[in-house]
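Lecture 7 notes: from sequence to structure.
We start with the chain below.
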Amino acid sequence: MTALLEIKQNIKKFYGQYEIYILPVLKFLLAFVYFLWINSNMGYMKQLDNIFVILILALVCSILPVSVMMFVGFALMIGHCYAVGVETAGFMLILILFMLILFLRFSSSQNLAMILTPLSFGFSVPTLLPIGAGLLGSALSSLPAGCGVVIYYFIRFVHAQSAALSDPDTEIAGKIKLLSDGLIQNWAMWITVIAFVVVVLLVNLLRTRSFDYAWRIAVIVGGVSYILVILAGDFCFDVTVSMIPMIISTAVSVLIGFVLEFFVFGGDYSRTERLEYEDDEYYYYVKAVPKAVVATSERSIKKINAEPIREEKKKDNTAVSYKIKTAQNKKESLPEERTEILAQMPKDVFESKVNETPKEVDKIDFEKQLEESLKDL
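Predicted structure tokens for the same chain:
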């Protein structure tokens, strides 16, 4: 557990330091996978079904908001539907406008779920999207999640009926009736929409409660409720659902939900504190859940190079040798300077100094001083 906490803290620290570089890369990868999924499931217009077009669009979306990625995906879908037929492109355009006006304009901050919903079906983990949206988003995430389910099933229907929709002998009214029936009478789609909305609302409701282990309970309840809603739709509308793959994908989604809970929330309920406050008007009951954190030791590595020290020693040796040489030169130059100074001085100075000392010595009478000292004794 300690190792996992250290990995979590290191990942958060790394992301905090390099967020300005990591976020565009993640946007680029998401846009690239999303556009590639659209081309692989539709791919009717050859001009758009090109890897270089996808790369250019993904690069553009990496520096722009996520909503731009959603609109670029809509444009690709309409373009591929236009290659099938004008009727299909018109129906797709009306469907997108209907969703934008009635639903998506209320959840502009949560529209990332619109992009991730078809990808969750593509990776065979559809339950992961409503669980993740309920944990990381708000209740409004149910709107783009439901719209993403409609887009996914409509693309599948167009792919299955592409031959009939592109037939020039079929009348326009027949094509429009075929498209509308394929959308309205698709009970598997509506059951999945209901399951997504129910799971998002339940997970978000439980996640925001104050009881212990709310996130983990929300993940488990979300997985179980998804299976129950799909089973209820299977009994009510006679929709055939492969149960074993659905249960396996739901279990995998629940496990990934636990991983999300660990990295995003990670509360340590064993150290929970309950506090009470009051003022003149209110009483406050606070429940404080500390985060699970481990103290990491920061290691600093110092590189020691021997070359700079050797160079400093060489400099010191040269300085010492230079001082010794200068001292020797000074000593050698002192006698020469003294001889030059003595040669320049006049001879009378030396004679006067030598002659003064004997005169002063002669003036002193040592016998008198001895007699006086004896008298004192």
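Points to note: DSSP finds 16 helices and two strands in the chain. The first strand starts at residue 273 and ends at 278.
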